[in-house]
Amino acid sequence: MKDYREIILDRRTKIIKDNNPIFIVYKMMRKIPYRSCIGTMRYRWFEVSRVYSDTVMEEYNMCRRLDPNTTYGDVLVGILNERASKNMRKRRLSMKGDNLLNPKLWKQLIFNINKKSKQMSKEVNTGGISFLGLLTIVFITLKLTNVITWSWWWVLLPLWGPMAFMLSLGGIVLIGLGVLSLMRK
Question: H helices within the chain, ranges in order?
Answer without folding.
Answer: 53-66, 72-90, 103-111, 115-120, 131-144, 152-155, 157-184
